[in-house]
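Dear support,

I submitted the protein below through the web form. The confirmation email said the job was done, but the results page showed an empty box. After a refresh the structure appeared. I'm attaching both so you can tell me whether what I see now is the final result or a partial one.
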Amino acid sequence: MRRFRLDEMIVLIGLCVASFANANSTARAETSPQDENAVNRQIRSKLVKHTTFDFKKATLEEVVAFLETRHELKVEIDYESLRNNDFDPRSLFSYTVDDTELWNGLKSVLDQNHLSCYLDHGNLKIYSRSNRYTSSYSVADILQGNQSVDVFCKLIQSEIQPTTWKTNGGKADIVPFESNKSIIVSNTQEVHEQVADYLEKMRAKHAVPAK
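What the results page shows now:
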């Protein structure tokens, strides 16, 4: 496990405090139906079944009723998450499609209002994916030549969800650390996934071929 310097710890603590109102202390994982988990195995088997969606200006409660009555799912709405991210309870969902996996269709429905869901001990929990959390990433093996961590941060801000970052008028943070070539990101689960994917692609791009 990597040890943090004092200056890094100060920034981490500050970012965590700032994002606490909008996130749980641990990151939410958007569990896919293929993940193996004994507790959630039964609900996962329901999520891969095919169904028909026919929502025309439906409320979130009506979407939940569809899941609970037609597909016998236990659904929980994270109302605190929705309030913290200014979700309008009057928001409506419209989605019509025949013969699609329940999981894929549900994600398409929730995406309309920046919501998502994950499995939590047999329940399907719906939350606002605008919640932010903080994580550190090493970029020492990605930087090219004399490229600074600060410049690399600006590259990320320009290529990954630009409007979410504070420098562009958003609420998310990205902090560079030249001392150990790392970055600290405070943003949503969705953006964290995109950052991780971006870093992996950069590593693959600059990898030295095996002899």
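Response: this is the final, complete result; the empty box was a page-load delay. The first helix runs from residue 6 to 20.
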